[in-house]
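Protein in question kept in full:
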Amino acid sequence: MNDEYLSDYGANHPVATKLVKRILKTGEALCFDRGRRLVIMEVCGTHTVAFARAGITRLVEDIIDLQSGPGCPVCVTHQADLDCMVALAGRKDFSVVTFGDLLRVPASDTSLEREVAGGADVHICYSPADSLDLARQLAPREVVMLAVGFETTAPAIAATVLQAGTKGLKNWSIYCALKKVPPALRALLGPDGHNLDGMILPGHVAAVTGRREFDFIAWEYGIPAVVTGFEPVDLCFGLYRLLCDIKAGEKKVVNSYSHVVKEEGNREAQAQVSQCFEITDARWRGFGLIPDSGLKLNKLFARFDAQLRFGLDPVPACEESGCLCGRILTGKAKPPQCPHFGSTCTPLAPIGPCMVATEGACGAYYRFMAG
């Protein structure tokens, strides 16, 4: 964010301009006191992209080390699950429905995009409900929805499952790779310790779970955190609020996105998810198996579980040799540290999901920070 950009930015967002100056002043004072840069994790992949796009990451890089976290649902989808998804697409008389992000993500040997080139029937959807319409049109052909996402996506998937049950569809199912963010943050913060001074928490996830769901970050690990939105003003306000709490020694989780996020969250969405799903262990890229961090269909709706229905058994799979996507998702590496970054791994020819996913840290760095 250069001076010219700041000038234009300030003309449209006078509040943000004042906040930028306060961020720099407060951050510089904290760095002087501690003798080092502050380390703050932006958990959400959308935040990673928004900070980079707005120029804030580069603006504060001398005083704040903004680390990416496990908040990109496509990025944290385990390689074994990706392999199963691609295998489904390759089955005769099967159609796969997916959000666009997954299309070009590399599995172990191929990708959905490559399978399409080989004749696989893969459909891009904008709403999970689109997969139900497709199942009616293509019956008796099997239609499998690839359900990838966090608490934000789970209610829409649950609503679709409920509709499928009501309509009596017999050729529709989901491959469930839904995950819960709080258990991943527990895995990230302990038991091996951490180097974080603060966390910026995902506004979209908190809108469903509620702010209280993240209190453990402060209570159990002594880290101040802030829930914030995604526009430049939201980003600046949230970051400044967090710096003020760090300066004051406050160990709490605050909500600077209160017009969207409530203390208790979205009860209706939570109830819908509980009606269809139960908590289970889940595989995460960069972490491995995290207890109680995933969702699976409960017994009432198990008939829609593609893994059970088609006898899918994900086998161990490894990331591409040298790919640091797993380490980037846990804040242990930066995109430029990866030997593939910008050379053998680009948005047009990705090796790992962090480069090709719209919320991926490598893609954000390549587009807004490199060069």
